[in-house]
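Q: I'm a student working through a structural biology exercise. My instructor gave each of us a protein and asked us to get a predicted structure, then write a short paragraph describing it. Mine is Nickel pincer cofactor biosynthesis protein LarB. I'm not confident about reading structure output yet, so if you can add a plain explanation after the tokens, that would really help. Here is the sequence I was given:
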Amino acid sequence: MYEDLGFSKVDYDREERTGYPEIIYGEGKTAEQITLIAEKLVERHGKVLVTRVSEEKAADLKEAFADSFYHSVSRIFSVGKPEKLYRGKVMVLSAGTSDLPVAEEALLTAQWMGCEVEAINDVGVAGIDRLLSYREYLQTASVLVVVAGMEGALPSVVTGLVKRPVIAVPTSVGYGAHLEGLTPLLGMLTACASGMSVVNIDNGFGAAYQAALILKVANEEK
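A: Happy to help. First, here is the predicted structure for Nickel pincer cofactor biosynthesis protein LarB. I'll explain a few features afterward.
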């Protein structure tokens, strides 16, 4: 079942089909459009998550929703407090500080979807001793989301250190031959490390969604 708003068809049955309510992609939508869609989803589900929201749009949204949260780095806007639903933990690693917007998008999305989350930042391969200092601790994660730009080497290295699924996220952070994220994307797709999957450039949301589904299925089977 959906409701036709003219400019959007709000999908009320998505949670029943997929396990999670519809999530709004905020970029390209006006604050008014986001507000109207979000009001419908909050009325139905008691919560809503909106990705890629500018600070200007967020200011308007916060006026419309009292119980709301906005994170300017990740550009995540949400209504309703996150609730831990699953055993296990999603650990989000970022290679460098410039990768934080994408890493934070993954972290907050996974948290909103019911996962316990933890961040380990600035552990890129340029200073690999930083990563290796967490070598044993990485095993406490159930799923790892690893975010990296430049040549995108970090996810392969992490995958070679852990017995956990790794979701790699290439970012559009780097110099000219980096090709706005294409270089790390292709590097991650051609990595020899087994157990690693790859999402699109800057898609922290997609990585978090996949990680949450992994935890959801694992909890259902126990």
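A: Here are two points you could use in your paragraph. The first strand starts at residue 2 and ends at 4. The helical segments are 14-18, 31-45, 55-64, 100-112, 128-132, 154-159, 182-189, 204-220. It's a good idea to check both against the output above yourself.
Q: Great, thank you!
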